[in-house]
Amino acid sequence: MITVSDITSSYGNKKILKGASFTAQRGECIAIVGANGCGKSTLLSVLAGTLKPRSGEVLYYGRKAWSDSDTGRMHADMEVIRGMTGYVPQENPLIPELTVYDNLRLWYSDKKKLKQELEHGFLNLLGVNEFSSKQVSKLSGGMKKRVSIGIAMAGMPPVLLLDEPSAALDLVCKEDIRRYLQVYLERKGTVVITTHEESELDMCNKVYVMKNGQLNQVDRRLRGEALVKMF
Amino acid sequence: MRQKMRYLYVEIKKMIGVFPHMLLQAIMLMILIGAIAFCGAKTMEKEPLAVRADIGVVVREDNTMTRLALGYVENLESASQVCHFVQMTEDEGIRSLEDGGIAALIILPEQLVEGIMNGANPSVEVYFPENAGLEAMLLRELTESGAGLLRVAQAQIYGAYDTAVEYGLTERLSVMEGEIDSYNLAFALDRLAVYREETVSATGKLSIIQFYAASGVILFLLLTGMAVYPVVQREPQAFRKQLARQGTGEAWQCFCKWLCGFLCMGLLGLIAWAALKAAGIFAPEMAEKLTSMLAGGRNGSHVGIQVGVVLLIVITAATLIYLIYSLAGSRSGAVLVIFLLSVVMIYLSGGLVPSMFLPKVMQTIGDKLPTAYMIRAVGGILTGYQADTLKQCVIGMCCYAVVFGAVSYWLRRRD
Fold first, then answer.
1. Are the CB atoms for B202 and B354 separated by under 8 Å?
2. Which pLDDT value is given to residue B313?
3. Starting at the edge strand that comes first in sequence, how are the strands of the sheet with B83-87 ordered?
4. CA distances from A139 to A73, A145, A174, B139 (A)
5. CA atoms of A178 and A160, how far apart (whole Å)
6. Domain A25-49+83-229: homologous superfamily in CATH
7. Which is nearest to B105 in space by CA: B125, B122, B119, B121?
8. How many C-beta atoms surround the C-beta of residue B62 within 10 A?
9. How far is C-alpha B120 from the geometric centre of its chain's CA atoms?
10. pLDDT of residue B301
11. Contact A165, A203 (CB under 8 A)
12. I want to staple B136 with a disulfide (CB 3.0 to 4.6 A). Which of A110, A225, B103, B394 is the partner?
């Protein structure tokens, strides 16, 4: 379970998040939508532990990931964040000069486990095993995104954070990723996804609109103009 | 820690993967530098002396004796190689001196030869332009040497005369003067005795070959920096943040990148050295000649010190290259900066033209540049180290490496 309470964050004097809060249960998919630059990626960075918030609290399964320390400064428990979350940023965190396997090797501490995942596990489900010996620079955008998800899944975290995973991908890739996420959700994983794709909202249990640095839950069936009006 | 070591392993693997491309670029670079060095060596072989000065001569009294004396001086080997005497009037001479048409003006007084013979010794006036160039500097040295010789010769004659009178040996005076004359003439006619020997070199005691070998090595090392882009480039922010999330902080990431850059540059240098050695197998005579030229004056530094200094040179060069890649926004920008900065720094450090021929400001700046310490350090390997020079080079390179490293880290962290 994820509990996010009153997260505030700013770049210099500009306040980006002004008390964003939401909760998510096991097996739930949470979508965060909103206009470009409204703070969706900032919130995901905070949840992934790559950006320090000004205030607020983040709990993963009851364990504090971000909290106020005694000195009043925000403190991150990176062990909790690392163990509980897998993060797929917008840019693919890959080394183009190396093969897919070498890239995966960087994030998978256990060589055996990596092999298993490629043969029967999530990496196999993502289809990464089909091109694991290829150099990353020769992969398509969809293949790279699948490898990025595979990297985030190293250690099998119970929470997956995805920052616009379908951006600039073709329909086949989008469908592949959506299918994979369905399987992950069926296995009681929790997904927090920021997106501009309406098709991705179909698999979400809750939809939040990010507006003025705050999250407002909206009807998950809203689409098109009705949804945009909420931005 | 395992994650950190895995990252280092991955970076080294990447380095091995891209190394053949870097090697290819380094080979092209070596061919280019080799061609320049070859052309330079050929030019130096053909033109041993590039400076020949026009000297204006004013003869106030044109008689046979003066003409003979002037002809004698003009045809001396030492003078004919560096001077070309042009007879002119006094007005023409002063005008030419002001225009820069001649490097010096010599005015020979009346009764010059007779004055020398009878001991009156009339003064020969020599004028140099205010902003003396290389030719004038050379001529001034020659004139001062010649005047010094004359002073000594005169002192010998007067000393011999006084001694002969004191001991009542005046009848033997002509024999003594004859011996003094033949000694001084033999001395004056020996071309080498006229020159004050001083090695003109950026590092003081290096030969020309050693001098250019030292600066060539540093130039090559810095230019190999153009090839190491794939291993020292900044990874995308997403990748760096993902690494930091997993416990591999920015400092370790910087260190790994720098280490790979250092290894690449070191390896490329090592391969270049091995290639030269291998070339020596096919052309042993040339290799032997080159080795003897490079090793001339070696006083045998400890091998351990030499290896340590080489490592420090590569560390300093790799850190400088790393800083440039941290500063530059793109690969093309970085490559351009590396090329320009390397050439300019080598020039200011006296690696292309000995620094004593550069303006004072350039000399002062160039002397403190990292390339100056690196060239001096390579020179030390070729000729043997003096404790002071070694200490200065080591401290200089260490300081630069630390500063470059700290600034690079700060830049990459800020991004």
1. yes
2. 93
3. B83-87, B53-59, B104-108, B125-127
4. 43, 10, 16, 71
5. 13
6. P-loop containing nucleotide triphosphate hydrolases (3.40.50.300)
7. B125
8. 11
9. 45
10. 63
11. no
12. B103
Pick the CATH number of B53-194 from 3.60.21, 3.40.50, 3.40.1710, 2.40.10: 3.40.1710
Q: In this predicted model, what pLDDT tens digit does every residue of B3-43 receive, in sequence order?
A: 888 889 888 998 998 899 888 888 888 788 778 777 766 66
- Strand order in A214-218's β-sheet? A85-88, A159-163, A190-194, A29-33, A206-211, A214-218
Whole-structure pTM value: 0.69
Interchain CB distance below 8 Å, B236 and A82: no
- Among residues 29-58 of chain B, which lie with CB inside 8 Å of chain A? none
The residue assigned the tokens 């922010």 is: B237
- CB contact at 8 A, A210 and A39: yes
For residue A146 the two structure tokens come to 């699948």
Choose among A87, A98, A105: nearest Cβ to B242: A87
What are the backbone dihedrals phi and psi of residue B378, each rounded to the nearest 5 degrees, phi first? Answer: -65, -40
- Spatial neighbors of A163 by CB under 8 A, at least 6 apart, are A40, A41, A44, A87, A88, A89, A90, A194
Which chain B residue shows the shortest CA-CA distance from A85?
Answer: B245
B401: tokens are 């490496």
ipTM above 0.90, yes or no: no
Overall residue count recorded for chain A in this entry? 231
pLDDT of residue B78: 62
The rounded Cα A139 to chain-centroid distance in angstroms is 22
Question: Where do the domains of chain B lie?
Answer: 2-47+202-414, 53-194
Give the model's pLDDT for residue B314.
92
Sequential DSSP letters for A83-144: HHEEEE-SS----TTSBHHHHHHHH-S-HHHHHHHHHTSHHHHHTGGGGTTSBGGGS-HHHH
Distance CA B341, CA B218 (A): 12
Q: Tell which B residues from 5 to 34 touch A, by Cβ distance under 8 Å.
A: 6-7, 10, 13-14, 17-18
Within a 13 Å sphere around the CA of B45, how many CA atoms are in the beta-carbon half?
6
Residue A95 C-alpha, separation from nearest chain B C-alpha, in angstroms: 8
